[in-house]
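So, read this over?
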Amino acid sequence: MNKIIKHYYNMIEVVLAMGIIAVGMTSIMGLFPVGINASRDAVGYNTSVEMGSNLISYMRAYASRNPSNFDNLFSSSVSSSLSNSLMNSLTVSTIDSYSQTFVNELKLNASGNVILNSSTNFDKRATGVYQLHESSITTAGRKVYYLVKGPVDSSGDPTTWKHDFAAMAIVWKSQVASPVPGSNSATIADSSYSKLAGLNIELSWPLALNYEEREKQYFYIELKKPKFNLQD
C-alpha cells in the first residue's frame, strides 16, 4: 500500500504569501481615493454643464424679450473681459464674501424654512438662478449670479437646506468677430454692443472654497438684439 506523505507550509512560506497579499491589497486600496475623486469631479462637471445651460437659457430668454433687456444685459457696467471684471470693483475678496452670504442663506431659519426664499440679499431670476437684490446691485453685482440645484416646490423655491450643487457665475461681454471672406483676418460685427454681442460665463464651484481654489467651467453664446417687444 502506498503511503500518503503530507507536506505542510512552513512559516517562511506563510509570511511571504501574506506579504505578497498585503502589497497587492495596499495597491488596490490606494486606487479607491483616486476613483472617488475622479467620480466626484465627473459629477461636478456634468452638473456644471446642466446649470450653465440653465443660466444660458435664462439669459437668452431675458435678452430676446425686448430691446431694453438686451441693452441692460450688455450695459457699460458689465466688463469686456474677465480680468477687467475682477479688477473693476469685483475683487476676489468680494466674490468670497458674496459666496459665503449665499451659502448661509441656503440654510434653514428658526421656522424650518430656507432663508433664501425670503432673502433681502438675492432675487430669484429663474428656478435655481439668483442675483443680488435690485437695491443692492452695484457695478460688481451685475456680473455675478448664483446657481443651485436641489429639491424645489411648485414655485421653484428650495424646500430643504440639502442641495446637489451650488455654483457662482461671473458674466462678461465680448465683441463678435466675423471672418472676412477670402482672408485669414476677421472684422468686428458690432463694436458698440448695440445689436449683437457675445456673452461669456465662468462657472466656479464648490462655493465652500475660496474663488481661486474652485473648479471652473466656461461657456459662450452670441445674442442678437430683438427689434420688438415680445408680448406676455
The chain is about 35% helix and 20% strand.
